[in-house]
Amino acid sequence: MPVTNSPRTLFDKIWDDHVVERLEDGTCILYIDRHLVHEVTSPQAFEGLRMSGRRVRRPDATVAVADHNVPTSDRSKPIEEPQSRLQIETLEKNVAEFGVPYFPLRSASQGIVHVVGPEQGISLPGMTIVCGDSHTSTHGALGSLAFGIGTSEVEHVLATQTILQKPAKNMRVSVEGKVGPGVTAKDIMLAIIGRIGTAGGTGHVIEFAGSAIRDLDMAGRMTLCNMSIEAGARAGLVAPDETTFAYVKGRPFAPKGEAFEQACDYWRSLASDDGAYFDTEVTLAAEEIIPSVTWGTSPQDVLPIDGSVPSPSDEPDPARAAQIQRALDYMGLEAGQKIAGTPVDVVFIGSCTNSRLEDLRAAADVVRGHHVAEGVRAMIVPGSGLVKHAAEAEGLDKIFLDAGFEWREAGCSMCLGMNPDRLTPGQRCASTSNRNFEGRQGPDGRTHLCSPAMAAAAAVTGRLCDVRELVKETV
Amino acid sequence: MDKFTELTAIAAPMPTENIDTDQIIPARFLKTIQRTGLGKNAFAAQRYDADGNEKPDFVLNQEPYRHAEILITYDNLGCGSSREHAPWALLDFGIRCVIAPSFADIFFNNCFKNGILPIRLPREICDELMDDARQGANSRLTVDLERQVIVRPNGESIPFDVDPFRRHMLLEGLDDIGQTMAHDAEITSFEHRPSRAWVPSITIGTVK
């Protein structure tokens, strides 16, 4: 393994510590510490193993949970959609056959794989973590190298516990200063994506740094790393620090006692060295970020809430101008209109981006004392059964239910609408999820990405609006 | 996986940036437990109206492009979801080669795993190839992986880069897993390194 004395980044260190072998052309066999498996991207991989007579090399480093297809309504009933049911039954059959640990659908621990991993201490700092899902980048918040893979690679990892890859380039995104009131990790990340674009991070692993990042709690860091893929990056990372260790300590699958202290010593050593080389550096001032929403059909179509929708006539490149027009037509917006005041039909608070207890608290703080606007369907989908229980213990469910929200079971839900939670054509949604692509939340549905606080504000006013004004009124 | 050596085929021009994998295959079609059969729903939202009828203005609904085996687009093809259903859908439709100025990383990688060759070329060249493609059925492109060139209908050769390891795998139609399993001893030795002692195991009975 090429360990040199030259300063290394956090990514370099985790990478070096997982290279099993470097092949002639520079491709590395990289060892994988944790493989998270869900029902949508794994059936063909298990089938591949079966066809080749291969086994799962490390069932004790693999964990499965169903999340994408699961209904978020009453779990005591069978799953109605036959194909969804088949996919979940197939997962259950596969984990039993190959001896893979599994959180059953009716377990309180079930939830979105990217919420469950950190919550259970299955995902830990310094690890390499993969899953057949692009939002695996979420786990990078712990200071682990975590990335999404395709199903062929899922099969490769099941069979060999390794992956073939060349090292990524290093990018550092520093956010310095303190964010203002009402500005969350989601707004920071939307601002970053708005700045560098959806391909800005291609080929890179992004390390998020700077005082505004250090100030974030773990849920905020997960939101940030979650959407690294929306900036095109292979992964996002935050250096593990005392906030990280306090979060990890005592989790069911985390090291205990002396083993935990030893692990912390190792994790501390992973921070990027002074003078480490980054191929790309980007800096943002936290004070300049204000609550934001997306207007278009790409996560880079970001606007501060006081902003106006762009005009194709202002875009010199005709192909890009055509794309702006197409996005405006799809979204049912006029060039140049103010984004604030746009009426919404649906509010979705959930997804692997923003469904943790801290997210629900932030939404509840806005909702308290208000009611969902007439004609708006507002839903809360906690990230896991444990998040749901914790929120109920604090009485958050009562705040939401009294205000007219739906309080549902855990799953991916309306982030991608594989279960029955979908937009109908033309419906407009303020959503805390991660993608506003055409048809993402349902055919011809219109998505505006925003933070839980902003989504809550949209729910109670019935429009996209500046959460800071709503909270000011209440105070 | 099928080998990829040389392909002479119709190319479909899609002069759009950021074609995401949700467009290539929407989530509602991911409920399959097979790799095949997704081609009919490739680009479903652009290809069909609400009643399931073909939209005539969409390129893959037009002749000769409904027989295209090459797709040419603008930047950042395949962004978004890691779903390998996207290359499966393209392959099932008949696409064996995708050409764009840039690709999203996971999609790029997933293409190779399925015998689809992704080629990065500057936007000006993609524009030229799209112009070729618009000339119709007699205007085929030849993609020669052995020589690493695309031959235009006018005979001009355009060289392209491809990772040598991936080129080898495609040319031979090889399975990565078998190759990696040949390194089993190194993997086992890695697993026994003392520096890895802190990594906990997850025992099956403890997950509930």
Automatic annotation (TrEMBL), chain A:
Keywords: 4Fe-4S, Amino-acid biosynthesis, Branched-chain amino acid biosynthesis, Iron, Iron-sulfur, Leucine biosynthesis, Lyase, Metal-binding
Cofactor(s) in the UniProt record: [4Fe-4S] cluster
Pathway: Amino-acid biosynthesis; L-leucine biosynthesis; L-leucine from 3-methyl-2-oxobutanoate: step 2/4
Domain of life: Bacteria
Keyword Transmembrane appears in the UniProt entry: no
Catalytic activity: (2R,3S)-3-isopropylmalate = (2S)-2-isopropylmalate
GO molecular function: 3-isopropylmalate dehydratase activity
Pfam families the record matches: Aconitase
Enzyme nomenclature, EC number: 4.2.1.33
InterPro entries: 3-IsopropMal_deHydase_lsu, Acnase/IPM_dHydase_lsu_aba_1/3, Acoase/IPM_deHydtase_lsu_aba, Aconitase_4Fe-4S_BS, Aconitase_4Fe-4S_dom, IPM_dehydratase_rel_enz, IPMI_cat
Binding residues for [4Fe-4S] cluster: C352, C412, C415
Co-factor binding details: Binds 1 [4Fe-4S] cluster per subunit.
Gene3D superfamilies for this protein: Aconitase, domain 3
Domain Aconitase/3-isopropylmalate dehydratase large subunit alpha/beta/alpha stretches: 12-462
Entries under CDD domains matching the protein: IPMI (cd01583)
Enzyme class at the top of the EC tree: lyase
Family: Belongs to the aconitase/IPM isomerase family. LeuC type 1 subfamily.
Function: Catalyzes the isomerization between 2-isopropylmalate and 3-isopropylmalate, via the formation of 2-isopropylmaleate.
Subunit and interaction comment: Heterodimer of LeuC and LeuD.
HAMAP family assigned to the protein according to its UniProt record, in alphabetical order: LeuC_type1
Protein name as it appears in the record: 3-isopropylmalate dehydratase large subunit
Taxonomic placement: Bacteria, Pseudomonadati, Pseudomonadota, Alphaproteobacteria, Acetobacterales
From TrEMBL, chain B:
Domain named Aconitase A/isopropylmalate dehydratase small subunit swivel: residues: 1-123
Source superkingdom: Bacteria
Classification via InterPro entries: 3-IsopropMal_deHydase_ssu, Aconitase/3IPM_dehydase_swvl, AconitaseA/IPMdHydase_ssu_swvl, IPMI_Swivel, LeuD
GO annotations of cellular component type: 3-isopropylmalate dehydratase complex
Catalysed conversion reaction: (2R,3S)-3-isopropylmalate = (2S)-2-isopropylmalate
Pathway: Amino-acid biosynthesis; L-leucine biosynthesis; L-leucine from 3-methyl-2-oxobutanoate: step 2/4
Documented EC number(s): 4.2.1.33
Binding partners and assembly: Heterodimer of LeuC and LeuD.
Entry similarity comment: Belongs to the LeuD family. LeuD type 1 subfamily.
Descriptive protein name: 3-isopropylmalate dehydratase small subunit
Species assigned in the record: Gluconobacter oxydans
Gene: leuD
